[in-house]
Task: structure prediction
Amino acid sequence: MAKTPRTLFENIWDRHLVTAETSETPAVLYIDLHLIHEVTSPQAFDLLRQRGLPVRRPERTLATMDHSTPTLAASLAGGMPPGPAREQVATLQDNCREFGIELHDLESPQRGIVHVMGPELGATQPGSTIVCGDSHTSTHGAFGALAFGIGTTEVAHVLATQSLLQRRPATLAVNLSGRLGPGVSAKDLVLAIIREIGVSGGTGHVIEYRGEAIRSLSMEQRMTVCNMSIEAGARAGLIAPDDTTFEYLAGRPLSPSGVDWEHALERWRELPGDEDAVFDRSVDIDVSELEPMLTYGTNPAMAMPVTGKVPVPNGDAGLRRALDYMGLGAGEPLLGRPVDVVFIGSCTNGRLSDLRDAARVMAGRRVADGVRMLVVPGSQDVKRSAEAEGLHRVFTEAGAEWRESGCSMCIAMNGDSVAAGQYAVSTSNRNFEGRQGAGARTLLASPLTAAAAAVSGQISDPRQYLEDDGQ
Result:
């Protein structure tokens, strides 16, 4: 009897199914790794205490501090200032101590943004199920893991049972042909995808990214793509594991080793779906002519080539409101528009390769007068590696601020924010109204495009800077 072709998602889902769903009840899915941080976990631990429950498998939970933590070294060394952020950090520390959970606190050399730290440690592994009280948990799908964000009540449920109630999502194949050109990055790729399918294009689906354009990406670039799957409304994003994945994971602190590594490789090589597997939907995109992208509106689908023009609303009330908020006119180019702030960092683009890209543009140049630039590594490990390569000197000599790791200006709840009315070119993942501060105007872009804006003081095509350097 012929074998029925299967998708990567089906292979992972079926291996973790405890109880199948019915018309009346969701499925029960076993969870391999639960990541927690200081913002969404306090209420979950309170729920456990109210019910007198322990954490079912504390060794399957990993905690870090990232959202509320300051990125100024002096604030960390001197202790966080009084307020809600310090209370959140202290509460997480108390909860992890009480329930026996491993925590990378402010003094840990491995602390970082949860979606940067997990892969660095090797905790993120192919074929696993991963959840976190954070929407950008989809990042871990770059490793062929089914990873998604959950709510506070669900965080408590996973802590108590190591499982989760879930309705089975549909599947969407995004087939990407061609290769990215010079100066075009994974961030440009994912912005183009979201522009193509829309902010609700992936709703109810798990996206699997396939094709030559994906296979040619590094693991860090793949994480950028999967990170923003949620911005297309998807439940999760997936990329099938391959030798690029395995080379990244080899030798990581929490990766299997010795005979266990060989056994793990055998399992992981069986995960990718069949070429003729059937998806509920599919989209085909040729990326060979893709240009550097950036957003002009208030959601990530409002994106355009850096050389393009702001679209005309033509009766679209949502677009009209977005342009009013952003202070932009229909039909105008963005090239040459002055900027006030540049932020390089976040779980989308705060990894070492992102900092290298920014440094390529900034080496030997200065941040333009009147522009504030923050460069925030995604983890302390990224920070140490960047400093070992001298990247921090490129940034500081250019006039940028070099910070400790954390979510920083992505979410503006830790002391780093953009003032009302200011234009910020940001490598983060959301350009919603007020995301980087009340009244802040955010244009999402790649590290290359962000760095070009920093040194020119205006929206610029990063390719001209790479050409100037013969790159």
The chain has a mean pLDDT of 96.
